Amino acid sequence: MATAFVDGWQKDETTVIVAAGVSNSAETERAAFEREDRMLDEVLARKELERVVYFGSCAVGNPAERQTPYLQHKARMEARILSDSRGQVFRLPQVVGEGGNPHTLTNFLRARIESGESFDVWARAERNLIDIQDVAALGTHVLRHRDQFPSMMSLADINSTNMLTIVQSMESVLGRQGNYRILDQGVAFPIETRDCQRAALACGVPLGPGYLRALLGKYYANVGNS
Q: How far apart are CA 150 and CA 32, in angstroms?
């Protein structure tokens, strides 16, 4: 995440983009959460800053999501940032980019489809995917025009996508069929994206129909054949 924002913000000494912290949504260790707490203490204590940006989670705002220790921590961090007039929270869905973090949804699906290892697909579940480079483009636009946007907003595709559709899209990109069971489980994943849509139109990010397939193709099209 930090690398994606380098070009626009590395030399801006009035802005801190908090791109380090707890990245594993399955995290339960208190020490990991406390490290991020201390990091925010240090950042918010810097009086010279004009903007402090924090990446929250779209799942925090979804009442259907189980409130895990990770999501409870994210909610607390969002509140801390928003209590400061300099704070800007960008809630994110599943972010897709380069890197081998096995905890991401798309890397998990790629690994299972390539290996043939079985997994379950919840037929009624939805997820929302966005390109890390588009997060940077959208976030930069919002920060440059802060008077036009709220201090907390989601950066996400216009609509969430059914998990079976995501799996089938990954199969198409990899040119392989996965080994999975389809279970009648899961819930929708609604995200308020009107503000994000305004930013996307302004900076040319092509959210909406075709976005998911293009996104998976960008990062995974050649992986299955490598």
A: 29
Is the per-residue pLDDT at 88 higher than 90? yes
SS3 assignment, position 52 = strand
Host domain of residue 12 = 2-220
The number of folded domains in the chain is 1
Residue 180 lies in a domain: yes
Q: Token pair of 208, please?
A: 């909406």
Looking up residue 26, the CATH number of its domain turns out to be 3.40.50.720
Alpha-carbon torsion 195, 197, 202, 206, what sign? positive
Where are any strands of DSSP class E within the chain?
Answer: 15-18, 51-57, 87-92, 94-96, 119-122, 126-127, 129-131, 152-154, 161-162, 180-183
Backbone angles phi, psi at 120, to 5 degrees: -105, 145
For the beta carbon of residue 84, count every other beta carbon within 10 angstroms. 15
Q: Does residue 226 belong to any structural domain of this protein? A: no
Tens of pLDDT, residues 189-210: 999 999 999 999 999 999 999 9
Instruction: Establish if 225 belongs to a structural domain.
Output: no
